[in-house]
Design goal:
This protein has one domain (3-134). Helix content is 70%, strand content 0%. The protein is built from 8 helices and no strands. It starts with a helix and ends with a helix.
């Protein structure tokens, strides 16, 4: 596997963890879901705090993976959400009736870690950190 693909997989797992982590700390009633109730609840209870965490995670990813385009970083961090939605649609065809809107929402939310990655890259450039000094 190429290094870029490995980096995108790492970003996808990290992004999923950052996306679902805030829902673990709320005491609201949980919504049922055919396969991934934690993902559904993370979407239903999406908050400004979760977006801040996504921005910060994107910033860290922008510092670590400076060779990746910030858009690739942002899209990779939320890439598993549409995959999970498709799996749930296959398990229960009556779920995700508004999937085009859901996927558009995921694309919009991915702009948050994209902005964080761009900010992280800019911070690294301002600090004078180069790829050679990273090694």
């Amino acid at each position: 596997m190429s290094q870029r693909l490995i980096e995108c997989v790492v970003l996808a797992v990290a992004g999923l963890a950052v996306f679902v982590a805030p829902v673990l700390f709320i005491s609201a009633p949980w919504y049922p879901s055919p396969l991934f109730p934690i993902l559904r609840n993370a979407v239903e209870y999406l908050s400004k705090g979760a977006l801040v965490w996504l921005f910060l995670a994107g910033g860290v990813a922008g510092l670590i993976f400076r060779l990746l385009n910030p858009f690739v970083v942002g899209m990779s961090m939320l890439a598993l959400l549409p995959v999970a939605a498709v799996a749930e649609m296959m398990a229960d065809p009556t779920s995700h009736n508004l999937w085009p809107l859901e996927f558009a929402m995921y694309a919009l939310i991915s702009l948050v870690p994209t902005a964080g990655a761009a900010a992280g890259r800019k911070a690294a450039a301002l600090a004078g950190v180069t790829e050679e000094s990273k090694r």
